[in-house]
Write a structure and sequence with these properties.
mainly alpha, 2 strands, single chain, 15 helices, two-stranded antiparallel ribbon
Length: about 325
C-alpha cells in the first residue's frame, strides 16, 4: 500500500512539474490553448462535486462562471480593487449565490433539478442584460494587465493551473473526510442517507457552494484575461454542456476524470475543427457519443485498468445495458 501511494504521488508530481514547465517551451498560441484546457478542467472538476459525487446533474453551473466574471469586472472597473481581491471575492460571490438558490432548488431531484438550474442560468443572463450596474449588453471593460504580452500568457496559464490544483486538492480532501462519504451516500440513496442521520440538505448545499466557488474563480480569471465581458459569452448554456461532457467523457465521479476529459475533448475539438471545418461539430458529436457508449465509465477507467479491446467494450455495453 505504501509503495502504491508513493507511486501515485510521484506520478502526480511529475505531471504537475511537466505542466509548470509547459509554457516555457511553447509559443503564445499553444500556451493560450493550454490555458483554455485548464479553465475547462476547473469547471468540469467543480461540476463533478455536485454532479459526479452528489448525483445532482446541474445544467446551470455556467451561472457561477458568469457571476465570477462579472463580480471581478465590477470590482476592478467600478470599485477600483485589484485583481487579487476581486479574484477571491468572485469565488465567494458565486458560492453565496449557490447557497441562496441551492436551498430551494436542491429540494428537486433528477430532471426537475436539471431544468430548474437551467432556468436559473437563463434568468440570471436576462437580469444581467438589463441591469445598469452590469451595463447590459454593452459589456464591461476591465483594466489591462501591466505586463509584457509573453508574461501575460504566463500569468493566466499559471493562475488557471494553480486554481485547478487547489480544486483537485480540496476535492481529494473532501473525499477522504466524512463530508465526502455523505455526498456519495446521497448519490447512491438519498432517502437512506437521510434515515441514518446524514443532514442531506446541508451536504447538498455545501457541495453546490463548493462547485460554485471554483467555477466562479475560473470565471474571474477568464474575465481578466479577456479584458472585456458581456452576458452572452459568459452565460451561454453551451459552457455547462461542455463541462458535463468533459466530466462524463473523462470519468464522472473520479478525481482526475474531468481533467482527462477536458484534455481529450479540447484536443479532439481542435483537431477536428482544423481538418473538418465545415462539419467538425458533427464529427465531434459522433466521437463523444461513441466514447460514452463504449466507455460509460470514462477514459479514466481505461487508463486505470489498462484495458483496451473489443472484449472490454462489449463488457461495458452488457453491464450498462447500452
Amino acid at each position: 500500500m505504501g509503495n502504491y501511494r508513493l507511486k501515485n504521488y510521484l506520478i502526480c508530481s511529475l505531471i504537475l512539474l511537466g505542466m509548470m514547465l509547459f509554457p516555457l517551451f511553447n509559443n503564445n498560441f499553444v500556451i493560450r490553448f493550454g490555458t483554455d484546457i485548464l479553465m475547462f478542467a476547473i469547471m468540469a472538476s467543480a461540476w463533478n462535486i455536485i454532479g459526479g459525487y452528489t448525483g445532482y446533474a446541474s445544467f446551470g453551473n455556467v451561472v457561477f462562471f458568469g457571476i465570477g466574471a462579472y463580480v471581478t469586472a465590477i470590482l476592478m472597473e467600478k470599485a477600483g480593487l485589484n485583481f487579487a481581491v476581486a479574484f477571491v471575492l468572485s469565488g465567494f460571490g458565486a458560492a453565496l449565490f449557490a447557497i441562496l438558490i441551492g436551498l430551494p432548488v436542491l429540494r428537486l431531484r433528477g430532471h426537475y433539478f436539471a431544468i430548474a438550474t437551467l432556468g436559473v442560468a437563463e434568468a440570471m443572463k436576462a437580469l444581467v442584460q438589463n441591469l445598469e450596474l452590469t451595463e447590459g449588453n454593452s459589456g464591461i471593460y476591465l483594466p489591462m494587465l501591466d505586463l509584457s504580452v509573453k508574461s501575460q500568457y504566463y500569468f493566466f496559464f499559471y493562475m488557471m493551473l494553480g486554481t485547478l490544483v487547489v480544486t483537485l486538492l480540496v476535492t481529494y480532501l473532501i473525499l477522504k473526510a466524512k463530508f465526502g462519504y455523505s455526498l456519495i451516500a446521497i448519490r447512491e440513496d438519498e432517502d437512506a442517507a437521510n434515515s441514518v442521520g446524514i443532514n442531506t440538505t446541508y451536504a447538498k448545499t455545501m457541495a453546490f457552494a463548493l462547485s460554485g466557488f471554483f467555477t466562479g474563480l475560473a470565471g474571474s480569471i477568464y474575465a481578466y484575461q479577456q479584458a472585456f465581458i458581456k452576458p452572452g459569452p459568459v452565460f451561454t448554456v453551451g459552457t455547462t454542456v461542455k463541462m458535463i461532457v468533459m466530466a462524463v467523457f473523462g470519468g464522472i465521479g473520479q478525481l482526475f476524470g474531468p481533467l482527462l476529459g477536458a484534455f481529450c475533448i479540447e484536443i479532439i475539438s481542435e483537431v477536428l475543427s482544423n481538418y473538418f471545418l465545415a462539419i467538425h461539430t458533427l464529427f465531434f458529436g459522433a466521437v463523444v457519443i461513441l466514447a460514452i457508449v463504449f466507455t460509460p465509465k470514462g477514459m479514466i477507467d481505461i487508463a486505470s485498468q489498462k484495458k483496451f479491446g473489443l472484449a472490454y467494450f462489449l463488457q461495458n455495453i452488457r453491464e450498462n445495458r447500452v
